[in-house]
Write a structure and sequence with these properties.
Strand content of chain A: under 5%
Number of strands of chain B: 0
Largest sheet of chain A: 2 strands, antiparallel
Strand content of chain B: under 5%
Shape of chain A: globular
Structural class of chain B: mainly alpha
Strand order of the largest sheet of chain A: 1-2
Radius of gyration of chain A: 22 Å
Oligomer: heterodimer
Order of helices and strands of chain B: HHHHHH
Number of strands of chain A: 2
Radius of gyration of chain B: 24 Å
Distance between the termini of chain B: 53 Å
Structural class of chain A: mainly alpha
Largest sheet of chain B: none
Number of helices of chain B: 6
Helix content of chain A: over 70%
Chain lengths: ~500, ~210
């Protein structure tokens, strides 16, 4: 019975998007209400299905009663259960911030729900072509959301993202095409069997692997394919940066995980070790360059964006190393990064609203004036650096552990080095916030008089709650990581069995 | 017949125009090349006018002149085009055709009306609500068929289950989905055309702060 309800994870937000349009025609105030109700339903559904999948084993459904491999199969296994629940929860949380911070029109909430539909679809689909369709749905919705700030800069950022995203999705599609030519199937589970029959060293299979990895790596913003990402994060409306930084690249990285372990399987890596090595080098490069670029940024949002480049490098390294610990670490880091980075972007947006401060220097003295905001942000930053017991530590620890166990010592060293760099740029910011004397914009925000016309004099309750919840979640997830490991063990064992 | 010198003069004209009108709006686009349109919002292709410029801003253009020939022709063929669009849409399930192609053909009816009666008058009639209703009808049809699958059968979009409800039920339900796609496509094409045709005049080009 539960199995047949899996399509609702995608159809629900889609219906919500439709109702939002309808509600918008009737009343201007209705769309946010419909969007919130839809996502509350989505959280319930995802939570229920996710717990069933984690407890009772994978759920699967052939859409429309067409049996896989001919029909489109939707699957909720342990990892997709985690991701689809993450998507539902984070999108609901950020939606509250969006409603509170910059109330958009009907179009905004419709695009928001379409994006949730696309991301949920990417999380649960078991069909590589269907994944492409959802990739495009979420991509198109993201471009529109980035542009919804209405400024020239956001339009340019959206256009840049559109060009990159379209090329990335096309490369992915090309890879899917090669795989289809080699095997004649699009179903992931079926592909894994047929690819093995074709032979992993067949040029068609190798080409499909290359195209798919490059396409998804662009979506996940790995160096040197990340150039769309800082602009998109920086110039989008605050709530949209929080949303896309937390989820869009996360789900793309999840898709890469799905392709690597459900379609190509670890046997592919064993047959073609150069593919694994290339992926490891690619991702470590991303870790190092992303961190270095983050250190040299003066704008906070851009710094957070480059930090994401480095963190996704870390995730992909975990995926490429492929030991159980490393893959589990990658999943943990994916979830942890979404929570922490989403919270930090909400914090950055709130600070911008309060004081107009956007650069590291302008953050000076912030924690004195807004202690809760400053404290919770600092907590999130330290969690991101990887201070135990936060989830940032757990993720990095498992990935490094996996790297050591696999005998790839250099990777473990690089993870440690990048942690130092992460510490460098976040400590700089924390030092500004807590120690340095207040910057003019921070002073203006609290002294009154000079304050901007419609700047609030304290952080909005919704934003503050979200940041604190994110900080608490970052620590709670870190403490609960062993439980998660037990819950995910069967799924990962199945995927990693060669 | 117009050598490089003429073009140079035209460029100077254009830049002078810009300098004069510079304080009229927050338009930040700069056009350094000589033969670029002085007003980048409105690019028309009317050929060189007496001043040697290759295009004119909308304010200087002649208003749309109603042509009896075009209006009569459009009036006669519009119903046929719409019928063809519907025909193509309805043949999506069992033969060549489909919602995407049919939707585009149906949308050309409205676009033809735009050409015949002027884009602005037609755009004034096309209210946002109409396109919204088209969208809701289109996507709503798909979702209704999808969710109906739970009622008729076991799972989402289970079209084969409609066989038990009505003869050839699966065919009719797929047909309905095609029509839904067609309606959405027609709405999107019409919306895009008139958005481009009338121009987006309220683009907020401002500082970062005033947008949130």
């Amino acid at each position: 019975m539960t199995d047949t309800l899996v399509p609702l994870l995608v159809a629900g937000p889609l219906l919500g998007a439709l109702l939002t349009v309808a509600a918008g025609l009737l009343d201007d105030r209705a769309p946010p209400v419909v969007a919130v109700l839809t996502l509350v339903g989505q959280v319930g559904l995802a939570g229920w299905m996710g717990s069933r999948a984690l407890l009772d084993g994978p759920l699967s459904n052939g859409v429309g009663g067409f049996v896989a491999p001919y029909g489109i199969e939707l699957v909720v296994d342990g990892v997709s259960a985690v991701i689809v629940s993450l998507v539902a929860l984070v999108s609901l949380g950020v939606l509250f911030y969006a409603v509170d911070d910059d109330p958009g029109g009907t179009a905004f909430y419709t695009e928001y729900l379409l994006l949730v539909a696309g991301l949920s679809g990417m999380s649960v689909t078991g069909d590589v072509f269907n994944l492409y369709v959802f990739l495009e749905i979420s991509g198109l919705a993201t471009y529109a959301l980035v542009a919804s700030a209405g400024t020239g800069r956001s339009a340019v950022a959206a256009l840049k993202y559109l060009l990159f995203g379209t090329v990335a999705a096309s490369l992915y599609l090309l890879g899917v095409g090669y795989a289809l030519v080699a095997t004649g199937t699009l179903n992931m589970a079926d592909l894994s069997v047929k690819l093995a029959q074709v032979g992993y060293d067949s040029p068609l299979v190798l080409a499909s692997f290359g195209f798919i990895v490059v396409g998804l790596a662009t979506k996940a913003a790995l160096f040197p394919l990340h150039t769309w990402q800082p602009d998109a994060y920086n110039d989008a409306p605050d709530s949209v940066s929080a949303f896309i930084s937390a989820l869009v690249s996360t789900v793309a990285a999840y898709a890469l995980f799905r392709l690597l372990y459900t379609v190509y399987t670890p046997a592919f890596f064993e047959a073609v070790p150069v593919a694994r090595d290339a992926l490891v080098v690619f991702a470590t490069l991303s870790i190092v360059v992303g961190s270095v670029l983050a250190v040299v940024q003066s704008e906070v949002k851009r710094m957070l964006a480059y930090s994401s480049v480095s963190q996704y490098g870390l995730v992909v390294v975990g995926l490429a190393i492929g030991t159980p610990a490393a893959v589990f670490g990658a999943v943990v880091h994916l979830v942890g990064h979404a929570v922490m980075k989403g919270g930090l972007f909400v914090a950055a947006g709130t600070v911008d609203d309060l004081t107009g401060a956007r650069t590291v220097d302008e953050y000076a003295g912030l924690a004195d004036r807004f202690p809760v905001l400053g404290g919770a942000s600092a907590l999130l930053m330290l969690a991101m650096v990887g201070v135990p017991p936060a989830v940032g530590f757990a993720g990095k620890w498992y990935i490094a552990l996996g790297a050591v166990r696999a005998g790839t010592w250099p990777v473990a060293v690089i993870i440690f080095g990048s942690t130092l760099l992460t510490l460098a740029y976040f400590t700089l910011l924390i030092e500004r916030m807590f120690v340095a004397p207040a910057s003019p914009s921070v002073r203006a925000a609290t002294d009154g008089g000079e304050r901007g016309l419609d700047r609030p004099d304290r952080p909005s309750r919704v934003a503050l709650t979200l940041i604190v919840v994110a900080a608490v979640a970052a620590i709670a997830l870190g403490l609960a990581v062993t439980n998660l490991q037990v819950a995910l063990e069967p799924t990962l064992d199945t995927l990693l069995a060669t | 017949m117009s050598g490089p010198d003429d073009r140079e003069t035209a460029g100077i004209d254009a830049t002078t125009d810009r300098a004069v009108g510079a304080d009229s709006g927050p338009d930040t686009v700069t056009t350094p090349t000589p033969d670029t349109d002085p007003d980048p919002d409105m690019v028309t292709d009317t050929g060189p006018d007496s001043a040697g410029r290759v295009s004119r801003p909308a304010a200087e253009r002649q208003p749309y002149v109603e042509s009896t020939i075009i209006m009569t022709t459009v009036r006669v063929i519009a119903p046929f085009v719409l019928t063809l669009g519907a025909f193509v849409m309805f043949h999506g399930a069992s033969s060549a055709g489909g919602g995407f192609q049919g939707g585009v053909i149906a949308a050309t009816t409205v676009i033809m009306l735009g050409f015949a009666f002027g884009i602005n008058p037609v755009a004034d009639r096309l209210r946002n609500e109409y396109l919204g209703v088209l969208l809701i009808l289109g996507v709503g049809t798909f979702l209704a068929i999808g969710f109906g699958g739970y009622l008729a059968g076991d799972t989402f979009l289970e079209v084969s289950a409609y066989e038990t409800v009505i003869d050839h039920g699966s065919k009719y339900s797929i047909e309905l989905v095609e029509v839904g796609i067609g309606v959405v496509v027609a709405g999107v094409i019409t919306g895009l055309f008139f958005l481009l045709g009338t121009g987006i005049d309220s683009v907020a080009i401002g500082t970062e702060d005033d947008t949130e």
